[in-house]
């Protein structure tokens, strides 16, 4: 493993960041000293933002019966993170993957669950089992709670932890706040490549330009198919081709700086029948990013003496991201004992990416003679709409009985129309450019993809409890129920326009819109056949369209016992009845792909009890010890039991599931020491252990020729995770009282994991993993497929560190933080056939955030993100499997609260 060695430029940037924070300290110290010399006419007590942000959520964490970490809105604002995913990487033991997914304690995203205000929500991402957390802007978040030990009142689908996104409620007083901001990334100084798109792209919506034409949809569903039959005419095929959008260039583009704004309005109204409240907020963000990208596929010895990738890519990616959100929260309080709240949330995220990359193929490329270039366009819209209604009721007249309830409905959509992939061939004569054309290989296509996904989740639940008080003890008994139903419909339509179906002289050109111009498409000589036959190639497979559903009914019982304010014992049991089914369809039809018996074989039906126990010893008002023990499960997602493929967005590998995939069973243990000091300083040290039966892992399957490698989702035999976490917050008053305004907070996690796949041909009995691998490969033996039968868990980092050094001026006008985050290398793709595992390398993130408060209502925020300018990289056999440039981003925002 290569060590990280900062260059002189990096050191300079680091020094500048630290100096900026210290200059903020020195300047404001001088201002404070000057103020002391003047006559004081008024004394105002000003609380430090240190205590208001990092310290505000400590009380809640201290009072939790189970191990949890909580991040408040002020903390998120302090670090300048724009969404839930970016903010959560600051939490102890959490790492961020692909800018969207959180790994808790080194376990992959499937080992965490996400809730919105303690309710289930759907995911608009077909490639992941959890909600992409970058979808939630920080503007709507009140706090983020990460519970790392299982309690009976939360889902038993629990591994590393449960992330609960708690949105802002109705305000305590009138609120009207506006915020404007802009940003610039140094990587955007490079010229990108883009296309015109639709008129509504600025809104994050396609205006229909990219949509699948109805004529093609009709043709795909017909008996003759898209290609047609002997009666299909040239004019009919021309009309189909002309109905597609070909104005995708791409052409060179200098991108604009990012811009964003948000508005929030809320108030409370007293009346004779109770108190009413309302909070409405909208936000909009439009950003561009131009980055340099490198990647490789199909590791082997083709084209080299030792090891190399048979296909490599090197070029520019240009991406526009548009996000907007809206919330409308209504509240009613009859009195302090009866409250109702209605929460409405709309989230929308559009990503439009064009990549223009040099493409080397060991089978086809010949340097100086025939070189290749690959252009691909990927547009997607993700959105989620959620409506949640909840009530809390206390009955003092009934021995303080309480009853809470909730009901919610959510839907998530993903629409990815008009994706395009094309390979150009550059012809050279002794290294001198002569011409460019579509790749001159008979089996090559210009590929078009149209994907849709729709998820619906309905959920409701209740809990009730009653407290008992005695001599030296308190006891609370609680029962509840959680119920949810989820439905999914997804489809992927893929077809190609064959290079061989185009006359050679018309394949020449450097842009898609040049080759597929209206003039060319209308010319009969464009087609190799007089009827245009052979121009289309339908690549849609059976199972690319599927419907799935799951249902969960759960009941739980809990008891929370306090004795002499010294011991707290909290425990209970949860029962869950879970069923899930996924039904694949034949391509372009509504007919099942398989018999009823085959569909029922992949259905999951299980019910289990899940116990949990938490013991807390309260030494005094400052120190306490916790021990948590529990049993949980990790269930396969809908996509995990399907044998159809989807493309992993990070590695671009093809991923498929196993129809016989089983749920994992986990035994969890947590022990934590916590010390909460009166000044707000604190320290916690936690030990954790997890024993996993049948962990769900991935293994690489060999690709064929130049095809993308494949990954199989399968059950390993066993797994373990052990580790220690240290979290702290301290000011520097222990050095001198004048330094109490400077603080240091951080956390470090050290852990180790192992997974045993269960490959052993000698025992004569196939493990579950061997059965699933043999079925996928249609092979009799798999002992030579996997390099390491025992290794670390996929996605596990052996160490994670977060540090934040901050300063709050005594006059309350200035706040400065330097924030550092790093994780250890983690396996992304397990190695096969003797190759090493592919690992994502450590990424050192250093950010500077400065806030200026000229008055009580105004805030100016300046942030420098990724000061070190380090690249993100995945390596295998010391070769670059994937690398992406990460520039330094500068952002400035202004907010005013009326």
TrEMBL record:
Keyword Membrane included in the entry's annotation: yes
TonB-dependent receptor plug domain ranges (all copies): 65-149
Subcellular location: Cell outer membrane
Residue stretches making up the TonB-dependent receptor-like beta-barrel domain: 425-867
InterPro entries: Beta-barrel_TonB, Beta-barrel_TonB_sf, Plug_dom, Plug_dom_sf
Gene3D superfamilies found in the cross-reference section: TonB-dependent receptor, beta-barrel domain (2.40.170.20), TonB-dependent receptor, plug domain (2.170.130.10)
Pfam family of the protein (one): Plug
Signal peptide range: 1-32
This protein's UniProt keywords: Cell outer membrane, Membrane, Receptor, Signal, TonB box
Family, similarity comment: Belongs to the TonB-dependent receptor family.
Name listed for the protein in its UniProt record: TonB-dependent receptor
